[in-house]
């Protein structure tokens, strides 16, 4: 039991606790959670809810980064998925048709990325840049240049509804986290993905089908992006091709890195990446409630991130070992 | 040796270098005289590149000294060595392909006038320099638009311009065709006439005999010998490189029993530009040795057999006809391959010893038949014991193990899939004596268990000891298949060194 407690003390958990405590100092009501209208309310719940889209992106991004890749397209894929879902329900489809259609759009984007990376051997940063740039254009084509708003209550429920006392985005993120972690660790996928990330050439020699694994992780990342895109669209009751998911790919990458997964590939942890997403959201919320002038937001955020990264750096871990 | 003055230009005295626990270079002496072409030979891991890196300032020696024109020097980096007169040209031209030829020649030393780049002086100067090498090209064009041979000469011109005493050429001919090699040799001859000391590293014996005055051979980090080329035969050189004195009284061929039924048949397997079509049949319970120098096509042959490279001719039969499009299919058919370059193609450095051992089996089982942690521990434990893998803990990253133990981990990985045919490419290179013995023991044990093994090795002693047949590779083709009494180091060395057929 003692060991388990020790395993919980990581730079990530320390950082999250520190950020939360800081928020509490700035805003004493931060930790208060109340039950109202059959669901929980409070700043903490808010952090979970607002952080859910990035957490979902980070789940997919972790798998991609574990293969030594990166997926820059997730923000644009969110816009595409949101556009498909919104345009779908507006043109008379039910939620049960529009949402799967949006998910398929995400899967197709992922497949495109995967084929560029795995089959054509294009560097992931360039390969995924294609949809990062073109994706918003595609989303605009789908929405015909307008911000498509909708009133379909079922679709809106995905973004703003609640169940079991928790907001839907939180539940979806938690479900995806548990499901993915189980699949990755209970099958051999996790080990094989790590092997490809550590040494793709050796993986080939060992008889691992690196190509199908690579395609798979990009497809999965596209799927996660689509889920996040549907949530964001449902939340604002509309699809904004220009701004939905804008720059969120960078937050997702940051979440994965804060979670301790190296951009050089190999060892990865999905729960830690989700924790990373929560740290980022806790900072955003904290800066917002603190009343700092908004122009300080990005600088404060950068400072905290630097602190976390320094704590995780090889130099720091060597110092800790000596101490 | 005519024309070589008495005073050496550059000397290495008792140079030694240790990496971790590995003695890469030990007590090596080398003299380079002005006006000589000095070939540096040795198999991979012999210490050639370590020696060169010390002479050119990339490494600092742990023992010994570098002496330039009679005075001891200690270069902090290659730039300092370059300024002192020692220039290096590597196999991969390390110039800037998207700058012009002239800019590349003058990079860092551009002629200036009134604080501005004097382009005309630069272009004129570049034209003049290259004319000295018999090269008349548009010096304003991008370097990358020229052939590798031209780029190579530009690199040499730059090195000579900046240094001018000693020129080190590290496998300059590796990517050149015959005519380009000729023109490169003309350039080298001119530099020699100008009194430079040229160090020439290559794997091609023909070229050594065509251009070198003297040859220094290294093996396992030690100096074997430095001799004038005029007194040497090709056989002598191969023997020095492979360390084979003709002192083998007997070869234990007779101890190896008759091999079992044919297991795998490779017919006319070949790939253009890689290895000429060859036939090879492997039987159960036999070891076939592959001998040949580096670059002879021995590794390329193994890569074709394992599906790493795709063959464009020939057929394979292994329990039925087999078409290989990737190593995955070779593994599925019961093959395993320990590659020559462990770090690049073999180990997963960050992953644990346990994971490294089970990975091929897991890949073979597929995504959904995951080996449980207990099963993994069991497999890793079993093979670690069988092969005497010295790891404090099977959960430690494999990169922390010694080279020999890493090699055993890769061997264990393949033994875990219970293969029918194992290909080992230089399984004992660069590993300590204990691990070496263990690997040779394992090869023999696997043979007794009825596996077919193909073992590529430069260690002729070993090859002779465990092979029931030896095939010899030369110039990217299989040139001999030795059996019975012919499996002897002398015969192998002769087959390797034999002149090209006219």
Automatic annotation (TrEMBL), chain A:
Organism expressing this protein natively: Stagnihabitans tardus
Cell membrane recorded as keyword: yes
UniProt keyword annotations, A-Z: Cell membrane, Membrane, Transmembrane, Transmembrane helix
GO MF annotations in UniProt: transmembrane transporter activity
Membrane-related topology note: Multi-pass membrane protein
Protein name: ABC transporter permease
Entry's Gene Ontology cellular component terms: plasma membrane
First-listed, main subcellular location of the protein, grouped into a coarse class: membrane
UniProt-annotated location(s): Cell membrane
């Amino acid at each position: 039991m003692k060991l388990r407690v020790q395993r919980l003390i990581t730079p990530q958990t320390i950082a999250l606790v520190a950020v939360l405590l800081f928020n509490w100092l700035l805003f004493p009501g931060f930790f208060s959670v109340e039950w109202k209208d059959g669901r929980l309310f409070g700043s903490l719940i808010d952090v979970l809810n607002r952080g859910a889209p990035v957490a979902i992106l980070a789940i997919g991004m972790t798998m991609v980064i574990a293969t030594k890749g990166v997926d820059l397209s997730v923000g644009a894929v969110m816009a595409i998925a949101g556009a498909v879902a919104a345009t779908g329900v507006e043109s008379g489809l039910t939620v049960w048709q529009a949402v799967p259609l949006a998910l398929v759009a995400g899967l197709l984007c992922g497949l495109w990325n995967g084929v560029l990376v795995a089959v054509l051997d294009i560097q992931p940063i360039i390969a995924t840049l294609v949809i990062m740039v073109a994706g918003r254009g595609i989303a605009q084509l789908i929405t015909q240049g307008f911000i498509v708003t909708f009133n379909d209550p079922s679709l809106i429920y995905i973004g703003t509804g609640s169940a079991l006392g928790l907001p839907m985005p939180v539940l979806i993120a938690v479900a995806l986290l548990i499901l993915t972690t189980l699949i990755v660790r209970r099958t051999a996928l996790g080990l094989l993905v790590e092997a490809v990330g550590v040494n793709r050439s050796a993986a080939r020699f060992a008889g691992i089908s690196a190509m199908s694994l690579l395609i798979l992780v990009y497809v999965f990342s596209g799927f996660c992006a689509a889920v996040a895109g549907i949530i964001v669209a449902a939340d604002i009751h509309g699809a904004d091709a220009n701004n939905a998911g804008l720059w969120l790919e960078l937050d997702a990458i940051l979440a994965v890195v804060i979670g301790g997964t190296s951009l050089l590939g190999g060892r990865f942890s999905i729960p830690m990446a989700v924790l990373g997403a929560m740290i980022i959201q806790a900072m955003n919320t904290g800066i917002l409630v603190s009343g700092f002038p908004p122009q300080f937001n990005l600088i404060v955020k950068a400072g905290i991130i630097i602190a976390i990264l320094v704590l995780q750096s090889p130099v720091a871990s060597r110092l800790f070992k000596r101490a | 040796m005519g024309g070589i003055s008495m005073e050496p230009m550059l000397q290495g005295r008792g140079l030694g270098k240790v990496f971790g626990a590995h003695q890469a270079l030990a007590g090596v002496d080398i003299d380079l005289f002005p006006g000589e072409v000095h070939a540096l030979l040795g198999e991979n891991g012999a210490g050639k590149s370590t020696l060169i890196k010390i002479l050119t300032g990339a490494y600092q020696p742990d023992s010994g000294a570098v002496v330039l024109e009679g005075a001891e020097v200690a270069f902090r980096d290659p730039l300092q060595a370059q300024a002192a007169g020692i220039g290096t040209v590597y196999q991969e031209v390390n110039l800037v392909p998207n700058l012009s030829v002239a800019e590349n020649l003058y990079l860092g030393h551009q002629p200036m006038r009134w604080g501005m780049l004097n382009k005309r002086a630069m272009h004129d100067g570049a034209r003049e320099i290259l004319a000295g090498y018999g090269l008349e090209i548009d010096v304003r064009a991008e370097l990358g638009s020229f052939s590798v041979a031209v780029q190579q000469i530009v690199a040499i011109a730059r090195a000579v311009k900046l240094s001018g005493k000693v020129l080190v050429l590290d496998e300059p001919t590796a990517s050149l065709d015959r005519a380009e090699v000729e023109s490169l040799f003309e350039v080298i001859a001119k530099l020699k006439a100008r009194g430079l000391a040229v160090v020439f590293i290559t794997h091609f014996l023909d070229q050594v005999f065509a251009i070198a005055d003297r040859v220094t051979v290294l093996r396992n980090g030690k100096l074997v010998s430095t001799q004038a080329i005029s007194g040497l035969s090709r056989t002598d050189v191969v023997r020095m490189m492979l360390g084979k004195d003709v002192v083998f009284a007997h070869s234990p061929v007779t101890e190896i029993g008759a091999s079992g039924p044919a297991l795998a048949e490779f017919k006319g397997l070949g790939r253009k530009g890689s290895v000429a079509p060859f036939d090879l049949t492997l039987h159960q319970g036999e070891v076939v040795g592959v001998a040949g120098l580096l670059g002879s096509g021995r590794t390329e042959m193994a890569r074709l057999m394992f599906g790493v490279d795709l063959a464009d001719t020939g057929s394979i039969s292994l329990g039925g006809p087999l078409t290989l499009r990737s190593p995955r299919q070779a593994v599925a058919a019961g093959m395993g391959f320990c590659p020559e370059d462990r770090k690049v193609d073999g180990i997963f450095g960050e992953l644990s010893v346990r994971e490294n051992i089970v990975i091929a089996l897991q890949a073979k089982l597929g995504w959904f038949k995951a080996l449980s942690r207990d099963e993994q521990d069991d497999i890793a434990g079993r093979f670690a014991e069988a092969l005497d893998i010295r790891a404090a803990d099977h959960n430690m990253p494999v990169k922390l193990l010694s080279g020999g133990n890493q090699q055993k981990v890769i061997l264990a990985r393949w033994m875990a899939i219970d293969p029918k045919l194992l290909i080992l490419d230089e399984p004992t290179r660069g590993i300590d004596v204990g691990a070496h013995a263990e690997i040779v023991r394992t090869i023999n044990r696997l043979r007794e268990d009825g596996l077919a093994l193909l073992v590529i090795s430069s260690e002729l002693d070993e090859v002779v000891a465990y092979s029931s047949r030896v095939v010899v590779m030369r110039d990217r083709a299989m040139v001999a298949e030795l059996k019975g009494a012919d499996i002897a180091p002398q015969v192998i060395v002769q087959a390797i060194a034999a002149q090209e057929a006219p």
